[in-house]
Every structure is written in C-alpha cells, then in structure tokens.
C-alpha cells in the first residue's frame, strides 16, 4: 500500500472512531456536564458573588479578569474526562478489539482526543453565555477574540493528551478521579487564573508565572483587552501570548509521542 493510501485509510479510520465516540457522547451527556459544571460554578462564585468583595489594583473589573482563568480551567477539567475514557476502554478490552482490526494504533488515541475536544467546545460556549450574563465583555476586535479561543482550544487539546497518558498509566478509576481533581486545584490556584500573583514570595510567584494556566490566562486577557496595566514580572508575564503558544505547542509535541509509546505497551498487557 502506498503512503498516500495509508494516510487516507488512517484518516478514514480516525473519522469512523470519532463518530463512534460522538455517538457515545450523545447517549451520555454527563461528559458535557462534568466539563462545564466546575467552570460555570467558578464564573458564578468568583465573577458574580465574589466580585463585590474582590478588587484589583487596576481599571479592569474583576469579572473581566477572572473569565480567562475560568476558560483555562475548562482545559484542566478535560484531563479527567479523557483519562477515564481511555482507562475504561483498556479495562473493557475494547482496545484489544481495535488491535485486531487493520488500523494503525495511533488512530485510537487521536480519535479519542479529537472527540473529547467537542465537550470542551460546548463547555466554552456555556461558560461564554454565563460570563456575558455576569457582565464580562471583550474590548478588542473579532480577530483577537478568535485568537484567544484558538489558544484555549489548543490548550484543551494538550490537556486531553495529558489525560490520555494518565488513563494509560493509572487505569484505576478512583485514582484517576483523585489525580485529575488534584490537577484542577493545583494548576488553577497556583496560577494567576483567579488572582494576580503580586505579594507572593519570589520563588512561589515565579512558579505561578510559569504555570501554563497563568500563561494561557494572561494571553487571553491581553488578546481580549482584559489585562491589568503595568504588570511587572518574568518573561512569561511580559510576553504572555508568545510564551503561552510555545508552552502549549511544546506540551503537545512532547506528550503525543509519549502517549503513542505508552499505548503500544499498555495495549499488549
């Protein structure tokens, strides 16, 4: 079979498996609820209720500041969704059935992560609606708005690959739930997603500034005109858009081959 024919076959197999995952998603909308629930709750609690008591030392309103962090948190919630799905497929022997078919092994993971991006997109639409209701507004042009959401979806895709790796390594559902919850808490609150990092000890502030959630959140604020003025800090703070894209794409470049190698070993256990 020629290389072109192999590529076409792989694309057909990927599309078929994506369709399978989406049909399953239609029967189990709990995935969408799981991805949306925490970010929506954060919009309501932080963007609406806490905005009356939390203020920023800038002309940016708190609900405008926090929305970028809430969108980034959607990516973190994707980790557990994909991890549970991959672990479930492995435990039920579904992967072995796929292996008996004439398809490339990477197709299984690529279709999984691509299909799981759909709940993330739906969650962002829901969070956008709730954010607009509490007063969030974008103060730049349409291209900047689209660029911000493009960055967020790329970040979500990177987190989906992290979830796939977690699912193959852990396999235990209870352990995956615990680890994915810890990822959400640590990466959300050890970042500038919900509050600026000024006032923290120098070493802790540096860790927070280079947290991918901080970079993605700060980049979206800059693209949407929601960023506080005159913010000092490291390169990650001064050039958030560049750092965010480098970080997110770097994560994908590193995680994808690791996932493929791990899957090859996991599928033969």
Strand runs, count: 0
Question: How would you describe the shape?
Answer: elongated
Measured as a percent range, the helix fraction is over 70%
Q: State the helix count.
A: 11
| Range of strand content | under 5%
Radius of gyration: 19 Å
Arithmetic mean pLDDT = 83
Order of helices and strands: HHHHHHHHHHH
Task: Indicate the multimeric state.
Answer: single chain
How does the helix and strand content classify structurally?
mainly alpha
Q: Kindly, what is the distance between the CA atoms of the first and last residues, rounded to a whole number of angstroms?
A: 29 Å
Which spans of ≥5 residues are poorly predicted at pLDDT below 50?
none
The biggest beta sheet is recorded as: none
Descriptive tags:
269 residues, mainly alpha, 11 helices
How are the SSEs placed, and which strands pair?
Layout: H1 3-27, H2 30-49, H3 62-91, H4 94-99, H5 106-134, H6 142-170, H7 173-189, H8 202-209, H9 212-224, H10 235-238, H11 240-266
Q: What does the model show?
A:
By secondary structure, this protein is mainly α. It is built from 11 helices and no strands. The chain has helices spanning 3-27, 30-49, 62-91, 94-99, 106-134, 142-170, 173-189, 202-209, 212-224, 235-238, 240-266. The chain is elongated. The protein starts with a helix and ends with a helix.
């Amino acid at each position: 079979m020629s290389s072109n024919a192999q590529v076409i076959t792989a694309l057909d197999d990927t599309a078929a498996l994506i369709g399978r995952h989406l049909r399953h998603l239609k029967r189990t909308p709990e995935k969408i609820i799981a991805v949306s629930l925490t970010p929506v709750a954060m919009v309501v609690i932080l963007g609406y209720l806490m905005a009356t008591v939390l203020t920023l030392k800038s002309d940016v309103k708190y609900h405008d500041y926090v929305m970028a962090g809430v969108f980034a948190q959607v990516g973190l919630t994707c980790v557990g969704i994909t991890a549970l799905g991959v672990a479930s497929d492995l435990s039920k022997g579904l992967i072995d059935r796929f292996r008996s078919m004439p398809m490339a092994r990477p197709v299984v993971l690529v279709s999984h992560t691509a299909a799981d991006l759909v709940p993330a997109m739906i969650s962002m639409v829901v969070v956008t609606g709730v954010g607009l209701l509490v007063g969030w507004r974008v103060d730049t042009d349409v291209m900047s708005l689209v660029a911000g959401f493009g960055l967020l979806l790329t970040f979500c895709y990177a987190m989906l690959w992290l979830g796939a790796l977690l699912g193959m390594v852990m396999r235990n559902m209870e352990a995956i739930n615990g680890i994915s919850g810890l990822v959400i808490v640590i990466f959300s609150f050890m970042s500038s997603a919900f509050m600026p990092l000024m006032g923290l000890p120098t070493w802790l502030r540096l860790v927070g500034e280079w947290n991918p959630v901080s970079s993605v959140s700060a980049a979206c604020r800059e693209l949407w005109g929601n960023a506080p003025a005159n913010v000092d800090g490291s390169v990650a703070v001064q050039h958030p858009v560049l750092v965010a894209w480098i970080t997110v794409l770097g994560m994908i470049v590193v995680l994808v081959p690791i996932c493929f190698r791990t899957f090859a070993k996991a599928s033969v256990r």
